[in-house]
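Morning run. Coffee first, then this:
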Amino acid sequence: MTVLSLELLKYTILWQGFVQLWFCFMHIFFFFAEHKVIIVGLDNAGKTTILYQFLTKEAVQTTPTIGSNVEEIAVRKTRFLVWDIGGQESLRASWSSYYCNTEIVILVVDSTDRERLTLTKEELHRMLAHEELQNASVLVLANKQDIKNSMSAAEISQCLTLSSITTHSWHVQACCALTGEGLLQSLDWMRSRVLAS
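And here it is:
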């Protein structure tokens, strides 16, 4: 072999190694990247029940969340790191400490709690004005649809003035945390959002 052939062989091997490393990196990045999601809403909206319904497909006994719960949820090879944040009045001021790198905000609304819907609207629009959430998509879950006289997803959308939100992608989904109704569609929407971005 000539010196030129040896040099060419060396660079070919180096190039093949680089290409293999690049494909490994892309595989890890696209197939194993976690997408950060936060679940927020007023107290007693059903946030923790929804988190564990996502995870186990079962209703679990919960207590009011003081601080947060975090779980990893996989939806057809798309992985979400989901933070469920307490909704009591004293905890809402700390929501912003979870905003960094959030891709999806899930706002859980108690569809029977008409009296506090204005407060929910204020919290939502305050969140969306935050710089760290400027690229986040919003999923509104109209929970407790199994209860008689609960508001429909369309009513909640209107009360929260979702149609006025032009800076974020958003979707409203009727659901029941206890039965899991509507939650599969929610996960599908979340997956479609992160794959589209």
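DSSP finds six helices and six strands in the chain. Good start to the day.
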